[in-house]
Automatic annotation (TrEMBL):
Binding site for ATP: G385, E386, P387, D409, T410, W411, W412, Q413, T414, D500, R515, R526
Binding site for Mg(2+): V537, H539, V542
Similarity comment: family membership: Belongs to the ATP-dependent AMP-binding enzyme family.
Name the record gives this protein: Acetyl-coenzyme A synthetase
Gene: acsA
Domain AMP-binding enzyme C-terminal intervals: 531-609
Modifications the protein undergoes after translation, according to the UniProt entry: Acetylated. Deacetylation by the SIR2-homolog deacetylase activates the enzyme.
Gene Ontology biological process terms from the UniProt entry: acetyl-CoA biosynthetic process from acetate
Amino acid sequence: MSDKTYPPSAEFAAKAHVDAARYDEMYAASVNDPDGFWSEHGKRIDWIKPFSKVKDVNFDFGNVAIKWFEDGTLNVAANCTDRHLATRGDQTAIIWEPDEPGDEAQHITYRQLHENVCKMANVFKNLGVGKGDRVVIYLPMIPEAAYAMLACARIGAIHSIVFAGFSPDALGARINGCDAKLVITADTAPRGGRKTKLKDNVNQALLHDVDDVKCLVVKRTGDQIAWRSEGDYWLHEEIEKVDADCPPEEMSAEDPLFILYTSGSTGQPKGVVHTSGGYLVWASMTHQYTFDYHDGDIFWCTADVGWVTGHSYIVYGPLANGATTIMFEGVPTYPDAGRFWAVCEKHKVNQFYTAPTAIRALMGQGNDFVEKYDLSDLKVLGTVGEPINPEAWNWYNEVVGNGKRPIVDTWWQTETGGHLITPLPGATPAKPGSATVPFFGVEPVVLETESGKEIDSTEAEGVLCLKDSWPGQMRTVWGDHDRFEATYFQQYKGYYFSGDGCRRDADGYYWITGRVDDVINVSGHRMGTAEVESALVAHAKVAEAAVVGYPHDIKGQGIYAYVTLMTGEEPSDDLRKELETWVRSEIGPIAKPDLIQWAPGLPKTRSGKIMRRILRKIAENDFGSLGDTSTLADPGVVDELIENRMNR
Ligand code: 6R9
């Protein structure tokens, strides 16, 4: 970790929304008088009925309740479309860049966006979707994904986006999990020159357990697809039947806007619930300040709308701010490793936001791919998803940013709705690898891991918690408020527990050290080790499995699986491939184990608990310091595992 600092230039700071002095002033106001601060900043969005109550929050385990702006009413879609018609109806809202560089990009104005959203909302209504109903969105990165999100918001339906890389089983579980009435998908989805059969996946997902779920299909490629016997509709046919008049539903600030499933340390993924008012205030405010977004700027977040980053920084934040936001259908390395920079040049991108894993992968391809392109429009660079190693930070800064663009390393989570710890580009001197300081209204604390005691000294190391709420905080787990409380409020009483470890340095800067629970971070995607394990043991030849993360040069962490076979089954390379394919089909390609080690036995305590600490060490190829192994039922198992370790 380097402690070299990179302060914003005086020139940048002078034009920025927030400079250092203003940050101090606003931050102090936000924590000293949250009600006053948020009653002011809550007005940044349009309310139908203004709120009079700002905040009502209880973090006490057993009684956790979080409400912001609760008596206000609004419509989120109207804030992202109608609101801009008078002032910027002809400005581009969305630039869509297709997978094939030769195919034409689309520029969708705010007026067109409004019309498309209203029409899609009317289609949803015709298919029986109303306020409070759930709609699953299983789409590639096409404008219809944004229309569908906003169409739900317009009529008060709750969307749950499932990343198009998830398998039919994972999709089915999410459709069931929220009792969706409608799934919207596409025929097939091109990405990186290959195609995913989305409609086929939906058909498979809807085979089991799911009745009465309608399916609306966007014609993306025109590829041949199979139709179910009933309940399937083409979007382009249904659109013909509706007009563009769809009054926005008046929603309460605390009505749910969306559900988004994310992995945790135990069990299956949980449905994170975000509500309308606080979330939109948070997404739009962080978008404006963290990226120092100004009117007329072209903003590009390379995430997929299937992840929270796409929700907050492709759709809701930018569109609430009247920004021009880019939606990119492809991948960073297709047709070659210059694609990001080609798109930046082509669309004159001003703010560029991506993940460390992409930066590392592109860094490995050499500087020529970057230097070919004119990146002079770039003003701010951002990263998200995992800690960024200083080498990647330096490359991003020097090669992409030409040493002149501030880098914002934004720490946040699906649960937090938007950035919590991040530099502001005109205010905060950056330190490579540190997410730096809290955003307005955010009060991070470092607790001693074991005792849970708050560490008062500036320099601290332990687990990262939040002392109080912020408007963008998740409100509950869909259908399971007890799980919400148990996951985030039980272990450290009175705080929101992030699941991350961190260090605070002498300047009060936060350095996220990674998850302290059984969640691993693979290419910036969260994966519960328990999920991969349950997929593995669902295979007929597998008796037991234990999954841990290990350091991976590009992905940040790789998936390392220890597998014990059923008696009579023989390990082989074919079986290894079979298990890889199996996990892909159970969850999706992102969950495929990178390394599988055959384990005749797993290290267990006498009470039968798997000692993951030891498995992690072996996977990290760091078995010199295994610590106390005296409680193991059979210490011999460990020597065998070390002997045959896969990561050397
Ligand atoms: C937005 C998003 C959340 C987890 C989080 C942490 C890791 C995200 C980070 C970071 C270090 C950053 N994380 N941003 N770690 N520095 N700038 O990624 O949400 O998918 O829910 O993941 O990602 O471990 O707890 P999500």
